[in-house]
Amino acid sequence: MALQALQSSGVAFRKILSHFPEELSLAFAYGSGVYRQAGPNSNQKNAMLDFVFTVDDPVAWHSKNLKKNWNHYSFLKVLGPKIITTVQNNYGAGVYYNPLVVCDGRVKIVAMNENISLRSALDKNLKSAVTTAFLMLPESFSEEDLFIEIAGLSYSGDFRMVIGEDKTKVLNIVKPNVAHFRELYGGILRENPQVVYKTQQGRLEIDKSPEGQFTQLMTLPKTLQQQINHIVDPPGRNRDVEETLLQVAHDPDCGDVVRRGLAAIVRPSSMKQSTKGIFTAGVKKSVVYSSLKLQKMWKGWLRKTS
């Protein structure tokens, strides 16, 4: 859900949440409305503020939100919360995306309790991101190199990076926010036995031996392991995933194989999610939102060629 940015403060964000039903397992804001980005839009005053809401019962939540925010929905609202939830869960990335929602700040502040199991899953996701990035980097690299790889994971294979997004988007995210990335990933890097983390120099060294890479490959998320197995394992052989990963660990192009596996996950999901957005946001909002994205891409291209 994309909302007009108020100001970069937790109080402002919590005020926005009170526009919506309170049954949220997790809510977080992200994007240029929260953390400053480099590039032609770095000083944009009316930046969109992006929120992600997670809920335990989508049908019940959409039912309440329809009563509270009927005008936020596209034509799908006339079909009811069950159909909305079906569209949300069964197509694309399992997200109901709705851009260009306007909220004001004249509301109460909402407090949220932290979900311990969800926090554990988020911590595991951070570690998986680091491990995946390690496999695509050389033996020695800078903090910025690492953070660029991490920030770029979700864009690997995303067709919108061909048309619709500024080609320097990932770099623009990382450049002004190295300190934030360091705060988020520093503990993981210091605790990893395969890493020599030279914090003063902002440099890292990792174990790129076949044994080291095999250890990293074995800790990747199962979905990515399966995609790598599908890419490497010839049709009809049906080798065990562990056997395939051992082969990849000895491959000089191990990083490229991992990158291809990522792209195989992201590409179809991004295409389906974008198509679904036409239904969840509506045609008018989709056209406006896409035009804003194309303007950003055009500005980025002009800046690069000037």
Question: Any descriptors?
Answer:
8% strand, 3-stranded antiparallel beta sheet, 52% helix, mainly alpha, 306 residues
Order of helices and strands: EHEEHHHEHHHEEHHHHH
Give the N-terminus to C-terminus distance in angstroms.
34 Å
Average pLDDT works out at: 82
Low-pLDDT runs of 5+ residues are 4-8, 105-112
Helix run count? 12
Compact description:
It is built from twelve helices and six strands.
What report would you give on this structure?
- The protein is mainly alpha-helical.
- Helices cover 52% and strands 8% of the residues.
- The protein has 12 helices and 6 strands.
- The protein has helices at residues 10-17, 58-68, 81-90, 116-135, 143-151, 169-174, 178-191, 210-218, 222-232, 241-249, 254-281, 283-305; strands at 2-4, 26-30, 48-54, 140-142, 195-198, 203-206.
- A 3-stranded antiparallel beta sheet has the order 1-3-2, with no helix packed on it.
- Strand 5 and strand 6 form a beta hairpin.
- Helix 9 (222-232) packs across helix 11 and helix 11 (254-281) crosses helix 12 (283-305).
- The longest helix has 28 residues, at 254-281.
